[in-house]
UniProtKB/TrEMBL annotation:
The lineage of its organism: Bacteria, Pseudomonadati, Pseudomonadota, Alphaproteobacteria, Rhodospirillales. Pfam families: QRPTase_C, QRPTase_N. Residues 109-282 form the Quinolinate phosphoribosyl transferase C-terminal domain. It comes from Roseospira goensis. GO terms for cellular component: cytoplasm. Keywords: Glycosyltransferase, Transferase. This is Putative pyrophosphorylase ModD. InterPro entries: Aldolase_TIM (IPR013785), ModD (IPR006242), NadC/ModD (IPR027277), Nicotinate_pribotase-like_C (IPR036068), Quinolinate_PRibosylTase_N_sf (IPR037128), Quinolinate_PRibosylTrfase_C (IPR002638), Quinolinate_PRibosylTrfase_N (IPR022412).
Length: 300
């Protein structure tokens, strides 16, 4: 799944137009359109790769022939190849920086997601990392691909696909009869209207968590709880069947294991989206006249 291309040709053309609306002035003046060249991408540091398929297709759109050496989701050690492209030097130079930046950014997100997953599983082998929809606006499709490439899951892809009852819903929905009665009423309404969905309730205190559990919440999203508070909720709920505990707010690789050990089976986080890009080494050289052009497909 992580190796499927999520940006269509229209989106990739938009990236190229943004960077070179009238082509590459330097390459055009130097008349490099008739010069055959070869460009390679390789990992400079250890990384979890993402975006190779999009970068390859972008380079194909400029007129290059591309071979992908590693799919998104693949771990790359320093120096290991990512892709190779061959074609007119002007075409390769036109797509170079856009393709490189795309891979570096997406791989940074994937690499941080992979580190979070590894840390969570150190705490408990069944722990899941679920990334929120709070990606940088305009990057959600590639952000989702990146966290999946890193082994994480998606918390929710948008407001339309899951039921998540926030305190804000309770605040504006009316508290006639008291806060807990309003909570019970909203959970019951959601369970009746959306029987095929799990009802997730975000809570800010242990008391709210216990109240939501009493009234049928399937998942308790424990907002900014400490690991000790997560463990306290789990102890108070007792043995199964009990709601799944999801820790949210401030989750990162440094504390993921502690939350998983405390009983949170889902760690809800946006941390991968702010990861720094990883470094991709790009080499551009004249193509040997006797060698065949690169072959393969950029995927779909």
């Amino acid at each position: 799944m992580a190796s499927l291309r999520v940006l269509d040709d229209g989106a990739l053309w938009a990236l190229l137009r943004e960077d070179a609306p009238y082509g590459d002035l330097t390459s055009r003046v130097l008349e490099l359109g008739a010069v055959s060249a070869r460009m390679t991408f390789a990992a400079r540091d250890a990384m979890t790769l993402c975006g190779a398929e999009e970068a390859a297709r972008l380079l194909e759109l400029t007129g290059a022939t591309v071979r992908i050496d590693a799919a998104s989701g693949t771990a790359r050690a320093p120096g290991e190849p990512i892709l190779e492209a061959e074609g007119p030097a002007e075409a390769l130079l036109l797509g170079w920086k856009v393709a490189q930046t795309l891979v570096e950014w997406a791989s940074g997100v994937a690499t941080r997601a992979a580190a979070l997953v590894a840390a969570a599983r150190d705490g408990h082998p069944a722990a899941l990392v679920a990334c929120t929809r709070k990606a940088v606006p305009g990057t959600r499709a590639l952000s989702a691909k990146a966290v999946l490439a890193g082994g994480a899951s998606l918390h929710r892809t948008g407001l339309s696909d899951t039921v998540l009852l926030f305190p804000e819903h309770r605040a504006v929905g009316g508290t006639q009869g008291g806060v807990e009665e309003a909570l019970a009423r909203q959970i019951a309404t959601l369970r009746h209207a959306c029987p095929e969905r799990r009802v997730v309730v975000e809570v800010a205190t242990v008391a709210e968590a216990l109240a939501a559990a009493r009234h049928g919440a399937d998942v308790l999203q424990l907002e900014k709880f400490t690991p000790a508070q997560v463990a306290d909720v789990g102890a108070r709920l007792g043995p199964a069947p009990a709601p799944c505990l999801a820790a949210a707010g401030g989750i990162h690789a440094g504390n993921a294991a502690a939350y998983a050990r405390a009983g949170a089976r889902v760690l809800v986080t946006s941390a991968p989206y702010t990861a720094p890009p990883v470094d991709v080494q790009v080499t551009l050289v004249p193509a040997p006249t006797s060698s065949p052009r690169a072959n393969g497909s950029a995927g779909s």
